[in-house]
Amino acid sequence: MKLPLATLDHVVINARDDMDHAADVYTRLGFSLTERGYHSLGSMNHLAMFGTDYLELIAIPKDAQSGRLDLLTFPFGLNGLVFGSEDSAVTYEALSKAGVPVEAPVEFTRPVKVGGEMRDARFRTVRMKAGVVPYGRVYYCHHFTRDVVWRDEWRHHANGTVAIVRFLIVEPDPSAAAKLYADMFGEESVRDIQGGKSVVVGNSRVDIVTEAELKAQFGDAVPDPEGRKAYMAGLTFRTLSAAKAARALQAGGIAGVTESAGRVVVPARQALNAVLEFIE
């Protein structure tokens, strides 16, 4: 059985129980967020939709007594790397045969207002078993209702973002950490890069690097590891124009932004502990 094709579906920022703050920050960063949605599992979200992938802010209501209380135990900030699946049953079977430690698929829904009427967005996810990765949540998402999620009216952002092109993970031993992705997508998907390994994921990539390499690329804009040796560190977005991104960040009152040719960097302390990079 063939391994799943590597495609990036979305990335997740965990706001724990403070969605109002997270939504304010990411709106000021120049993203157009969808209306707040409520999952059948008890979490809520806002999305920033791009061409074929998206960014998700996730949280639970303040004072929640049930539902996704696990979000309170996960690190604040960048906490989810989600790959695409066209068929979650096939994905689960193929990964299990390849020895990748995955849980059986779980299905859930979220009502979405589309053209004045409410429809249910339906998903099924295949997650890694607990403890497989030390730096966050890695899973696959199978969309049954893509037309309810990817809508052109939600794809226009003041910062010009059209795609996520890189997901950054810090790991003391990038080679050991990359083995999981070689098992998931095949050896040929993993490449050597300066200070670590890169996993080719469709038109984007996952870079697994040492903390020293992250600092070499981003200086003091890097996130606070909060005592963690391994963590999800940042995102690189493709923008239509670095100048447009810089203007949106200025309009949002985002401090500490640095600009160079075709590149704009937002320090992690301004973006819920994830360093953000916009490139043309």
Automatic annotation (TrEMBL):
Pfam families: Glyoxalase_3. Residues 8-184 form the Glyoxalase-like domain. InterPro entries: Glyas_Bleomycin-R_OHBP_Dase, Glyoxalase-like_dom. It comes from the Bacteria. PANTHER family: BLL2707 PROTEIN (PTHR40265), GLYOXALASE-LIKE DOMAIN-CONTAINING PROTEIN (PTHR40265:SF1). This is VOC family protein. The lineage of its organism: Bacteria, Pseudomonadati, Pseudomonadota, Alphaproteobacteria, Hyphomicrobiales.
